[in-house]
From TrEMBL:
<keyword id="KW-0560">Oxidoreductase</keyword>
<feature type="domain" description="Glycine dehydrogenase C-terminal">
    <location>
        <begin position="780"/>
        <end position="901"/>
    </location>
</feature>
<comment type="similarity">
    <text>Belongs to the GcvP family.</text>
</comment>
<dbReference type="GO" id="GO:0004375">
    <property type="term" value="F:glycine dehydrogenase (decarboxylating) activity"/>
</dbReference>
<dbReference type="Pfam" id="PF02347">
    <property type="entry name" value="GDC-P"/>
</dbReference>
<dbReference type="InterPro" id="IPR015422">
    <property type="entry name" value="PyrdxlP-dep_Trfase_small"/>
</dbReference>
<comment type="subunit">
    <text>The glycine cleavage system is composed of four proteins: P, T, L and H.</text>
</comment>
<feature type="modified residue" description="N6-(pyridoxal phosphate)lysine">
    <location>
        <position position="704"/>
    </location>
</feature>
<keyword id="KW-0663">Pyridoxal phosphate</keyword>
<feature type="domain" description="Glycine cleavage system P-protein N-terminal">
    <location>
        <begin position="19"/>
        <end position="442"/>
    </location>
</feature>
<dbReference type="InterPro" id="IPR049315">
    <property type="entry name" value="GDC-P_N"/>
</dbReference>
<feature type="domain" description="Glycine cleavage system P-protein N-terminal">
    <location>
        <begin position="458"/>
        <end position="732"/>
    </location>
</feature>
<protein>
    <recommendedName>
        <fullName>Glycine dehydrogenase (decarboxylating)</fullName>
        <ecNumber>1.4.4.2</ecNumber>
    </recommendedName>
</protein>
<dbReference type="InterPro" id="IPR015421">
    <property type="entry name" value="PyrdxlP-dep_Trfase_major"/>
</dbReference>
<dbReference type="InterPro" id="IPR020581">
    <property type="entry name" value="GDC_P"/>
</dbReference>
<dbReference type="InterPro" id="IPR015424">
    <property type="entry name" value="PyrdxlP-dep_Trfase"/>
</dbReference>
<dbReference type="Pfam" id="PF21478">
    <property type="entry name" value="GcvP2_C"/>
</dbReference>
């Protein structure tokens, strides 16, 4: 392959997409190469990447030539048209919904929301954090519990996390976890798969009779059959055993039904999908988790809380951050290190827009519609599985179930075939009287006037909700579209996202999320498709998924790919569970040791623990590489028990390890499997492949290398790719449209609620690969490596670059060591990060993988002007720190320790600082016309943990 940068000769041809995606032009590239000291990008990258792993030429390729943007959209239209338009009434946790246009346009389709990063720099994330605290308040109010986190990946994985919370918090001395027989089938399958790896015994029960000893119990409310039931007696019995109760509850139903907390649940979980979030063939959707008082520190994932800034103003931030799983490593209790922020924002704003009265009205209409359908069916002597229901009815039609489902499908409706005698029908806010009439006809009943429905007709009065919810003013103040639009704009303006400037986060790859890639996500042919729709109705989706899987397999050197994992952490877990399944199938049940370098991502260790493995840490040498002597010693020590090695390539330290083939061979020789973490594929794509490094399995971060936006901390997609011998153990699913889809025989189990995970955003990565082509992907890698080395070269004289490989080169990111600066000046990495805000930047990754450092990854999307702006800012900050050391400014009162500076600070009457207002807020003249103003001063992190408040503060707090 060539990395030619010659201009296009056909002046009438549209610009290649790669030229739009990659920010560096030919003239800028030449200037950057001069600084780095190489004559070509090809020479640079091929020097950095070890020659022993360079990709071998292939005669044929599954990757088609790069398409133009128009061609890619046309192909996506063709795929979309192959999905049969139908009204989904399958239910099982997934419902059609109306996304208010003001939310679709101003959140889902707005780069100010979808290109933001996780709010680790809370001073410039206040809008997103407020939206998330709205989400948490919505969940706690509806569930009747004390504290909710900032979203989970989906309902079924949230149930698993609830089970793990119960195990940690329970006083019971048993490994038994009771599971409701009326739970969603995909959740039951996921529980069985996940519990087996960590030694939990699942016992399915109808909860009739005496409740056996257990550390916890899971109940579905309402049940999969639609049944609404009072589980308070079950909760009392479980609590008597010292166990905890986990309830999966439908939030829309909870606007009418008594809350789980009121019935004795300790943990409530579920999905917020039906709060305005499109079906998307299964995701992405925001799951939720809420806990009773006393369990706050057991919560997995992220928790937004209220603290104060440097002048005492209330401010939002992530609370209890030492719980973050990548920090706790092998002591982690969950491997979740992300959330579903973009979707949580949508769900929260749905509640803000409709308010409690609007939500209750929607739920009442749904319940009445379901009752009207049930009454019509019962009038013709058909029997229901449950008389008390909210939105779902199961109908007994002995021997006729398939006929009813087929009749409905002919009319354009998808119903649930339960068994040969039972059909399930679920209604939602989009269901009309005409829809109900069509369903009644599908049962072979004559047309008749529909009876008047009554909400919760057979539900006992004691289960009707009487307490108030969503009482905070935010859920009452934005009823008009004008008010809602302005509220969303206000919050967006308080944030820093990729639409403002570079987010140079190492290990995170904040690249361009092109508008053409995003376009198809909102198309109804993709967005309004149920994940359990019959195969005949989703040919377009399946074709797109299979194409993307083939492309990902080719570029990584693997044989099979599963797109089911809906986060990188879930992809890691899926890969390790595949290794576990492989060893067990071979009778090697004693192989449970997972070797992990000390430099690895913290989720690696957490995932290994959740896969039932024992973590053994391998040391790294001074250059940041795996210590080969220590590796060999650990392999010898654990030879008979060795299950796997997890290694990140390029390393977490940002260098290409030249001994990688020797490392992987040593593990294979001992009978272990090699897991190559795909977090840094952005530095390898097109030049080397994980499968050629000796990798047996990898997860890939589509939200990094393949352009799915981070969404403020989610969504993500973390597919798992494997060699043929591990393919049979990739994720399976009870509702998968094609049993052999992932190349396996389903010896594994699911890792996500939906068969294809967050399928609704897969058109983004499909479009990215389709428009880049093999050559474009290779050019993107080269540009990313060039940009990182350019920054390292320009800043090396000011900040030591901590690790480097061949010829002093880094990979796609570099680590700037700020510890000498602190020793010389007293200025900390925090001070530099917050001062960067005044210069108009999001800070790089702080103190990972080494404390006191900044890890910088510019990505291929940034142009030279933005790279230079960042470098100039870092040099200027260094000079400011030296001025502090020279005594020009006091150590406790200077632009760095006081950063960031707000507009309120700049216009204050009592300016007493020894530096000027202009120095504070306009440290570079270029900022005058394009200044980003942080809404708060530096936030007091400790105060927020000492005074834990995780729901909307009263309005007077901001007076």
């Amino acid at each position: 392959m060539s990395l030619s940068t010659a201009p296009r000769t056909d002046a009438t041809a549209p610009a290649a997409f790669a030229d739009r995606h990659i920010g560096i032009g030919a003239s800028d590239r030449a200037r950057m190469l001069e600084v780095v000291g190489y004559d070509s990008v090809e020479h640079l990258v091929e020097t950095a990447v070890p020659a022993s792993i360079h990709v071998r030429p292939r005669a044929t390729s599954d990757l088609p030539p790069a398409a133009t943007e128009a061609e890619a959209l046309a192909e996506l239209r063709e795929l979309a048209s192959a999905n049969r338009s139908a009204r989904p009434m399958i239910g099982l946790g997934y419902y059609d919904t109306f996304t208010p246009s003001v939310i679709q346009r101003n959140v889902l389709e707005n780069p100010s929301w979808y290109t933001a990063y996780t709010p680790y720099q809370p001073e410039i994330s206040q809008g997103r954090l407020e939206a998330l605290i709205n989400f948490q308040t919505m969940v706690t109010d509806l569930t009747g519990l004390a504290t909710a986190n900032a979203s989970m990946l989906d309902e079924s994985t949230a149930v698993v996390e609830g089970m793990l919370v119960a195990r940690r918090a329970s006083r019971a001395k048993t490994d038994v976890f009771l599971v409701d027989a009326d739970a969603l089938p995909q959740t039951k399958a996921l529980l069985v798969h996940r519990a087996a790896a960590v030694g939990i015994r699942i016992v399915e029960t109808t909860f009739e009779g005496e409740v056996p000893e257990c550390f916890g119990a899971f109940v579905q409310y309402p049940g999969a059959t639609g049944r609404v039931w009072d589980f308070s007696d079950v909760a009392t019995a479980v609590h008597a055993h010292g166990g905890l109760v986990v309830a999966a509850a439908d939030l829309l139903a909870l606007t009418l039904l008594r809350s789980p907390g009121a019935l004795g649940a300790d943990v409530a979980v579920g999905t917020t999908q039906r709060f305005g979030v499109p079906l998307g063939f299964g995701g992405p959707h925001a799951g939720y988790m809420a806990v009773r008082g006393g369990l706050e520190r057991q919560l997995p994932g992220r928790l937004v809380g209220v603290s104060v800034d440097a002048v005492g103003n209330p401010a939002y931030r992530l609370s209890l951050q030492t719980r973050e799983q990548h920090i706790r490593r092998e002591k982690a209790t969950s491997n979740i290190c992300t959330a579903q922020v973009l979707l949580a924002v949508m769900a929260a704003m749905y509640a803000v827009y409709h308010g409690p009265d609007g939500l209750r009205a929607i739920a009442t209409r749904v319940a009445r519609t379901a009752d009207a359908l049930a009454s019509a069916l019962v009038a013709y002597d058909l029997h229901l599985a449950a008389d008390a229901f909210f939105d779902t009815v199961r109908v007994r039609v002995p021997g006729r179930a398939q006929d009813v489902v087929d009749r409905a499908r002919e009319r354009g409706y998808q119903l649930l075939w339960v068994d040969d005698a039972t059909v399930g029908v679920s209604v939602d806010e989009t269901t009309t009287d005409a829809d109900v009439a069509a369903i009644v006809a599908s049962f072979g009943l004559p047309a008749a006037e529909l009876p008047e429905g009554e909400a919760l007709r057979a539900v006992p009065e004691r289960l009707h909700r009487e307490d108030a919810y969503l009482t905070h003013p935010v859920f009452h103040a934005h009823r008009s579209e004008t008010a809602m639009m302005r509220y969303l704009k206000l919050l967006a303006d308080r944030d820093y996202a990729l639409d403002r400037g570079m987010i140079p986060l190492g290990s995170c790859t904040m690249k361009l999320n092109a508008a053409t890639e995003m376009a198809a996500v909102s198309w109804p042919e993709f967005s309004r498709v149920h994940p359990f729709a019959p195969e005949a109705d989703v040919h377009g989706y399946l074709a797109m998924i299979e194409q993307l899987e083939r492309w990902l397999a080719e570029v990584t050197g693997y044989d099979a790919v599963s797109l089911q994992p809906n986060a990188g952490s879930q992809g890691e877990l899926a890969g390790l569970l595949a290794i576990r399944g492989y060893h067990r199938a071979n009778g090697d049940t004693e192989r449970t040791v997972c070797l992990i370098p000390s430099s690895a991502h913290g989720t690696n260790a957490a995932s290994a623990i959740l896969a039932g493995m024992r973590v053994v840490v391998v040391a790294c040498d001074e250059a940041g590489n795996v210590d080969l002597d220590d590796l060999r010693a650990k392999i010898a020590q654990h030879a008979d028990a060795l299950a796997a090695l997890m290694i990140t390539y390029p390393s977490t330290h940002g260098v290409y390890e030249h001994d990688v083939l020797e490392i992987t061979q040593a593990v294979h020789d001992a009978g272990g499997q090699v897991y190559v973490d795909g977090a840094n594929l952005n530095a390898l794509l097109g030049f080397a492949r994980f499968g050629d490094l000796g990798g047996d399995v990898s997860h890939l971060n589509l939200h990094k290398t393949f352009a799915i936006p981070h969404g403020g901390g989610g969504p993500g997609v973390g597919p798992v790719a494997a060699k043929a011998h591990l393919a049979p153990y990739l994720p399976s699913h009870p509702f998968s449209q094609r049993a052999d889809h992932a190349g396996g025989v389903f010896d594994g189990g699911p890792v996500s609620a939906a068969p294809h995970g967050s399928a609704g955003i897969l058109p983004i990565s499909w479009a990215y690969v389709r428009m880049m082509g093999a050559e474009g992907l290779r050019q993107a890698t080269a540009a990313a490596v060039l940009s990182a080395n350019y920054i390292a070269a320009r800043l090396r004289a000011h900040y030591p670059v901590l690790y480097a490989g061949e010829g002093g080169l880094v990979a796609h990111e570099c680590i700037l060591d700020l510890r000498p600066l602190k020793e010389q000046t007293g200025i900390t990495v925090d001070d530099v990060a917050k001062r960067l805000i005044d210069y108009g930047f999001h800070a790089p990754t702080m103190s990972f993988p080494v404390a006191g450092t900044l890890m910088v990854e510019p990505t291929e999307s940034e142009d030279l002007a933005e790279l230079d702006r960042f470098v100039d800012a870092m040099i200027a900050i260094k000079n400011e720190a030296l001025a502090v050391a020279a005594g020009e400014w006091p150590a406790d009162d200077n632009p760095l320790v006081n950063a960031p500076h707000t507009a309120e600070t700049a216009v204050a009457n009592d300016w007493t600082h020894p530096y000027s207002r202009e120095t504070a807020v306009y440290p570079q003249r270029s900022l005058v016309r394009g200044k980003y103003w942080p809404p708060v001063r530096r936030i007091d992190q400790a105060y927020g943990d000492r005074n834990l408040v995780c729901s909307c503060p009263p309005p007077e707090a901001f007076a």
